[in-house]
Amino acid sequence: RKKEIIMKRKLEDSAREVHTPQLLEEQERLIATLIEAHRKTYDASYSDFSQFRPPKRGDGSPECRNATNPFLMSLLNSDMDELPKASASGAEAAAGDELSMLPHLADLVSYSIQKVIGFAKMIPGFKELCTEDQISLLKASAIEIIILRSNESFTMEDNSWTCGSNEFKYQIGDVMQAGHKLELLEPLVKFQVNMKKLDLHEAEHVLLMAICLFSPDRPGVQDRCRVEEVQEHLTETLRAYIACRHPLSCKHMLYTKMVEKLTELRSLNEEHSKQYLQISQDAVNKEDLPPLLLEVFGNPTA
Ligand code: 8C0
Q1: Which helix (H) or strand (E) holds 160?
Q2: What pairs with residue 155 in β-bridges?
Q3: Which of 46, 70, 116, 144 has the lowest tally of Cβ within 10 angstroms?
Q4: Which strands make up the sheet holding 160-162, listed edge to edge?
């Protein structure tokens, strides 16, 4: 009797493998909802970027090329005949502030957090969670989802995030001028390159962001079962989508590779939290970090 049941299960399992899984109508609707949510919260014209505090790049600026003559430079460039008051820091500032890109990138991250929140609110199941769980999920995944969504602006031509004009083109050097170490940025760029190579469909891209958000194992999550349920529904939809919509030649292992990306994001996130602590402490007096960013990533002075 037991053997019969086991045999029957095996038959059912292999039948499932052979028959191409279908995209259920409900799954189609879910994908359409996610794509619309993403389009409403990702402006690919990047026209809002001019409202951020402007990017300041030390490299290439006249001050920096003349780093040996910072005072001469500042006198030549200003209408006043006096040396800057705080001489030591004046020299530093003229030679190119170490955190000169921080205000712009902090504004970009803060803006992106707002967009990620907007995206989350449109995912079926998110609003039904209690506010505490919504906050726990967002706090833990915001930076990961920003990294994922940023792949849309990333280009392998010159390994930069290109958001319109040259002013809003971000290269490793620019992010270093926001206080980030090369050791963290190299894996971040490598991640972007490997993501780009996966050449995801929009449906897969948005599903991955939603799956990332609904991770039941984030710190502080109360109703893990609800979160897991939604995540499983999303992963099932992703598997079905890949199985029936992705061209045979490139769908091999795609789901597995996508799940691997989520693991890589975790370790980027972990490394980032360590550096964030350092940067946020360096930045406390500069009032460089927007309040939303402090709330989401933590405020070292609070
Ligand atoms: O100066 C700081 C700025 C941000 C110091 C710390 C932070 C961190 O937030 C508090 C984020 C750190 C993160 C790098 C570490 C990741 C392991 C930032 C600096 C990265 C993440 C960004 C913002 C550098 C510039 C390019 C990176 C993602 C980029 C994203 C690009 C876009 C453009 C965001 C996306 O939302 C969008 C609309 C465009 O695609």
Answers
A1: strand 160-162
A2: 160
A3: 46
A4: 154-155, 160-162, 169-170
Q: Is 237 helix (H, G, I), strand (E, B) or coil?
A: helix
Q: Whose CA is nearest to atom 27 of ligand 1?
A: 147
Q: By the 8 A CB rule, do 147 and 268 touch?
A: yes
Residue 126, token pair as written in the block: 């998110």
Per the structure block, which two tokens stand in for 203?
């449906």
Dist. CA 85–CA 71, nearest whole Å = 11
Q: What whole-number distance in Å separates Cα of residue 184 and Cα of residue 71?
A: 34
Distances (CA, A) of 62 to 58, 59, 76: 9, 8, 11
Q: How far apart are the first and last CA of the chain?
A: 65
Q: How far is the CA of 93 from the centre of ligand 1 (A)?
A: 23
Q: Which two tokens stand for residue 192?
A: 């972007």
**Alpha helices in 67-214, H assignment, sequence order:** 70-77, 87-94, 102-121, 131-149, 172-176, 182-198, 202-213
Examine the pLDDT at 219 and tell me if it is beyond 60: yes
Its ipTM equals: 0.94
Residue whose CB lies within 8 A of the most ligand 1 atoms, among 50, 138, 146, 287, for a mutation test: 146
Residue 162: enclosing H or E segment and its boundaries?
strand 160-162
Which strand (E) or helix (H) includes residue 154? strand 154-155
Distance CA 301, CA 242 (A): 46
Under the banding of pLDDT at 50, 70 and 90, the label for residue 76 is confident
Confidence (pLDDT) at 13 = 61
Closest ligand 1 atom, CA of 116? 36
